Fold 4-hydroxyphenylpyruvate dioxygenase.
Amino acid sequence: MATENANYPGEKIFKEAKDFLPINGTDYVELYVGNAKQSAHYYKTAFGFESVAYSGLETGNKESVSYVLQQDKIRLVLTSPLKKDGPINEHINNHGDGVKVIALWVEDATKAWEETTSRGAVSFMKPEKTEDEHGYVVRSGIHTYGETIHIFVERRNYKGVFMPGFKAWKTDFNPAPTGLKYIDHMVGNVGWGEMNKWCEFYAKVMGFAQLVSFDDKDISTEYTALMSKVMSNGTGRIKFPINEPAEGRKKSQIEEYIDFYNGAGVQHIAVATNNIIETVRDLRSRGVEFLYVPEVYYDNILERVGEIDEDLEPLKEMNILIDRDDEGYLLQIFTKPVLDRPTMFFEIIQRKGAQSFGKGNFKALFESIEHEQELRGTL
Ligand SMILES: [Fe+2]
């Protein structure tokens, strides 16, 4: 059994991970989007996020507007520019809507910056203290793949709704949550031959351990292929699989992503639920679109994955996939891209013991993605 390490908030379960960058969890995920107000409405209506905080002209922010939404432990920040030019406009022009910041909650943002930059991380933002009547927050930041950044957030001395510069966002429109609990993992797509470089970055600069590796033999169909490695911090609370395209007869979905995103970026955000059937039923009724898996997937499925607690019928009806590993099984499903470009999407996952990522479903899934690529003319 792993022993509790004083440096770790939570138990260290991967002993090869280093102890220099203790992370409590994901603090927030910030997307730069073309129209934050309408995106916020989508995440509330379709996904059941609730309104938390706002920054914009009314709070003295003349450059950009941000909406903060939350569902259980998942916090999203949606940001749009208020004027022409500048880094946010440029980001949207290059990438379309997409994830700019994966913010990590730490006890000491200054130390997090020192430990990572001294190991080779490129600084995005030196430690900076901001305060208001609710206390203070210290943030620092480093660059990761593409134009994506990690912001380290130290908030132990802050009692406000989100951060200095934000006010509570009160609204009469409060759709019910859909059972989404926390971010299970966030996947990055990187360019040809770049997977190992970025896995080494997470190992060396952030002290992460490598959990698993999939090569193109694991993840290929008749037509397309990709490779993937999963990096995790010591407690397993932060898991970042990194994908790169692999040679196939047709164009890899990772290459399609890189083409439309104009480089590396976040491919999907996997969010956990305790009842995937109810969550997916709810999301579907609110207009969230999911990848379709052909009915043959469910033929002999129980012979492949063994006994499961759930009835097969509703899983089949909702198109939910099942996979098993040594520790248990998992249920998962993927949305279609939630943006105009075929770039970012969500995964809904319910773990029943399994700590893996659904390797047994890769083939069925990628055939479904190929079908979508075919429709887009990008296969
Ligand atoms: Fe995933």
Observations:
- Residues 268 and 345 are 5 Å apart (CA to CA).
